[in-house]
């Protein structure tokens, strides 16, 4: 946790919702992000945390918070060193006091009704533990853009992951969750937060995806998601970097899910079986991508055969078996 001073604008009583506005290299966007957080119609605790980016983001946020007068309890701080996505999230969670946690990125814009809509959804669905929403995509200058993103069903659990055979959770920038999703299991493992939180939510209850767009989700050069998925890197390197980072991401998510399962001996047997299938899917996919990236072709057979035996991965593994006949360059690797 940062030992740096915290600026605070205090409102009472203590809010039910904590908004975690996490930022890194967002100097061009943090004003719009903070203005949208201040515009929320439900009083919130807003924690603005910069992951030691050194580009002026923290100083801009510090200035805006010092000038803020309104209904929200607002803190601004920065880490003493760069932590990365999950470690930064864990660091800030130690400061949050709300029973509902709302995630926000320093380059996105929340619509004013976002928090109110999230609170109402959790109240109407007491079995839901994690929630996401649709979004409107924008570019660097706020212009509408199209992005490819598979729409989630409105309500889903572990069976959804196995049935569709895709390791995708809710979009982190749209997520909110009940505090127990974190407190029940402790700090996140792995480098990325969204899939781990989605799976924790599935262990404890159900996931919701609201069809209402609640944020403007910004895609731009230098964004965290662009870095994770190598969108901004030269084409010759992008596929390799994406494979390397996905291996780390899948293994970290699997480690987190496995640790959570150990802490839930009371989990019903049917749900545990589904969760273990999802865990196996993450392990197999990580091993398969690592094999394709680094190992001779005969070493690909192990993950392919394991995937063919896994209900959620049969189609993908059959497609991967065909890659045994193709040169690596055909799918972007050297």
TrEMBL record:
Record keywords: Transferase
Tagged with keyword Transferase: yes
Gene Ontology molecular-function annotations: hexosyltransferase activity
Ranges for domain Glycosyltransferase 2-like: 18-184
Name the UniProt record assigns to this protein: Glycosyl transferase, group 2 family protein
Superkingdom per UniProt: Bacteria
Pfam families: Glycos_transf_2
